[in-house]
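YM 10:42: histidine kinase sequence, as discussed on the call
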Amino acid sequence: MMAKEPACNKLSEKVKELEDRLLDCMKAKRELNNSEKKLRSLIETTNDLVWEIDLNGVYTYAGPGVKYLLGYHVDELIGTTIFDTVIDEEVERTKAFFRDGCKALKPFSGWVVSLLRKDGQLVIVEISGTPLLDDDGKLVGWCGFDKDITDRKKAEAELQKAHADLVNSNKLLQKEIEERKLIEKALREREEDLKTKAYDLQEANTALKVLLKHREEDKHKIEEQVSLNVKKLVEPYLQSLGKSGLSSTQQTYFDILQSNLREIISPFTRKLSSEFVGLTLTEMKVANLVRLGKTTKEIADLTMVSEKTVEHHRESIRRKLGIKKKRISLGSHLHSFS
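YM 10:58: structure's back
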């Protein structure tokens, strides 16, 4: 009896151990079932594409998210390869990445590639995956998920564009600032140059005024000297000639000569010349005879031209003096210059 009791105790302990292990297995199975339910619920509700592929890149499983992401039904995607939806420009890059991944046998994340939806629209996805190994540790496929980052990429592109525009605007602004600085510098230099030239011009004007004043003084001195010389050296002989008994014609020429000589030293001719530079020498001669009271016929005889020519000169003189259409005597107007 004593030998049987230890055997029974050991058997009871083994049974208890098996019961505990069974309970642990049942608990683990329940937890596994719950995890599977949660995972399946997550797969069925997420917009990400959960997938499994074999060693050739053929889809063996696709979650419901394929409808949202690519517009395909699950059964349309199963049997196709991951390269069928990649845009042509990125197929070779994707194949190279797949080959390298099969050699490395390491999980990956953040792989970005552009796919084509069923409706032809472009969608940008970020792919994460992990290798599937059999009991012997041999690679049999991959599982993972594709996340739609199209909006994020668009936002990044817009942000990059905005940043580039801002940088470009800053460059343009800096360029404009530099150009304005150059313009301001040129304006300051121009202002200084104008100040210098204005000062030089002012000095030149001052010197010119002094010269003009001296010239006017010299002119008056010369006029006074000429007038004095005429009175001393010419007029005595004219007086003697006038008393020598001249003929009528000689007396006329003598009167004109004496009058003209007086006009040379009088302000009339100088004033007439300075005020109306447009008069010709002949018109000046006719104007002087008109001022002396000579008639058209007398002027024609003295100048040896026709009366019509004299009338023409008279009209020209009136026009140049600005009295052509005025009721004013040419002789009276000419006397105003004396």
